[in-house]
Write a structure and sequence with these properties.
With about 240 residues, this protein is mainly α. It contains 8 helices and 2 strands; from the N terminus they run H-H-H-H-H-E-E-H-H-H. The chain has 2 domains: about 90 residues, no CATH class; about 130 residues, no CATH class. Helix content is about 55%, strand content about 5%. A two-stranded antiparallel ribbon has the order 1-2. Helix 2 packs antiparallel against helix 3. The longest helix has 29 residues.
Length: about 240
């Protein structure tokens, strides 16, 4: 408790190393030492700018921050590491990939990833791409959203929304440069790569539409985008 009986927040209770700032002269208990080490690990991870180390270090901080409300853990990280900590952590969770697949796709069970059936025709299940949507992430390529800490989950969703819009803009520029008619004439390798990208984008649009935190306006925008992607998928598979 602070003066006047008010609760102290993490920035008041701990110094930048994670030590208890309310008293001096005695060695920090084991719990506070774990917190100090967790913050040091997170500092190194943030500097590395690598997704997995940042996610692992932030989870360690969660596990070590006994007595700190989950909603204040990010504040604690920012106090110790600076304002760049929030962006690095949110960015890492928004880019974290599914560990069961590659870009939301796994080898097609029907053709064993070959893309063709026994008669040498394009596999009816995967359309000749040799891959199908990952059952674990439903084709998004994103890690399970339930593993995202509650205090940053909504921010991560907004970051993922922003990234999807950037990908849609990049797709529109690529299609414009190539020409819609030429989608049918792409070499098989390039056509398959495009099909995989479109499938992942479609899965991400569908996933975001289902979230309660997404507004009605955002849902309409995502649904419109999904319809455009669906049209491109049909053109791509007509090669």
């Amino acid at each position: 408790m602070g003066r006047g009986g008010e609760s102290t927040g993490p920035s008041e209770r701990f110094d930048r190393s994670g030590r208890d700032a309310r008293g001096t002269g005695s060695r920090a208990p084991a719990g506070r030492e774990r917190l100090r080490k967790a913050l040091a690990e997170l500092r190194v991870a943030v500097k590395s700018r690598k997704v997995d180390p940042i996610v692992a270090a932030y989870q360690t901080l969660h596990d070590s921050a006994n007595g700190v409300s989950p909603k204040n853990i990010m504040e604690l990280a920012i106090h110790a590491l600076g304002p760049e900590a929030r962006d690095a952590i949110v960015s890492a969770y928004s880019q974290r990939e599914c560990f069961m697949c590659t870009r939301g796709q796994a080898p097609c069970d029907h053709c064993a990833g070959n893309g063709t059936d026994e008669d040498g025709e394009a596999c009816a299940n995967c359309g000749g791409t040799g891959v199908a949507a990952c059952d674990f992430c439903r084709g998004t390529g994103w890690a399970d959203r339930e593993t995202i800490p509650d205090e940053i989950r909504d921010i991560v969703v907004q970051r993922q929304l922003s990234q999807v819009h950037k990908d849609l803009a990049r797709l529109a520029r690529a299609v414009k440069a190539l020409g819609t008619r030429n989608l049918r004439r792409l070499p098989d390798k390039h056509r398959r790569e495009l099909a995989v990208w479109l499938a992942q984008m479609q899965a991400r649009l569908r996933d975001l539409c289902e979230l309660e935190t997404v507004t009605e306006t955002q849902v309409r925008q995502l649904e419109d985008a999904a319809a455009r992607v669906s049209s491109l998928q049909k053109l791509t598979m007509q090669g």
